[in-house]
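Minimal example, chain plus cobalt (II) ion.
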Amino acid sequence: MLDALLERNAAWSAEQNVREPGYFARLATRQRPDFFWIGCSDSRVPANVVAGLDPGEVFVHRNVANVIHSSDMNLLSALEFAVDALHIREIIVCGHFGCGGVKAATEDLPHGLADHWLEPIRRLARSYAIDLSCLEDIETRRDRLAELNVAEGVRRVSETPILQRAWARGEDIRVHGLIYGLKDGRLRDLECTVTRGYATSEAVG
Ligand code: CO
């Protein structure tokens, strides 16, 4: 299986060089992505592919169920690099319908370490229990919870000192929330974009 993967890579590299001679040499000198994508690790939601972007166009961080833990050094390091070094101005938190992580967070079964990781989603489910119970079936409730998790992620990213400092410097950074449909391959804007002017004190108040 690995041999086949390496063969596909060799073919892709050769084709790319034919299509655009010097492509890799140019890309190797620097990256200037317009977007920072925070998404789910699910193999069906690859950032570049679903957003129609080429190598070099999106900086990516993915984890199970795109959870934003405000002490996650992996996420924070990537976020800081995206904002301070790459000067990315469009940050996207992207969840998806049919998310296995969201499903696991709604089940009364032990999932090992994932239960710790997914705790913020369980907390959201408790906070919105009444709203969610109005939805007719479990799949719809989970999909709504996936949307709520994205909106919560947008808020948490916006509250990090990294974003607060960047906005205080006057930088025009936008944090967007999107949801992806596995069944139709479409990205939807959840219209929970946070822009400059969003202060932590307002969020807390
Ligand atoms: Co997922």
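The radius of gyration is 19 Å. The chain has two domains: 1-30, 32-199.
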